[in-house]
Amino acid sequence: MGLLAAGVAQRKGYHQGFWLIWGLIGGTVAFVTASRLKPKTDIF
Known about the structure:
The protein is an all-alpha fold. It contains 3 helices and no strands.
């Protein structure tokens, strides 16, 4: 589940390493949270 959470978060523009660790600890909770994230936009 950690790999899935990291992959979803990375596609939405978030840091993959953080989500990988969070996913390995939190499993399904991290995946559901990453799935509900809004895509990041780079506004300067």
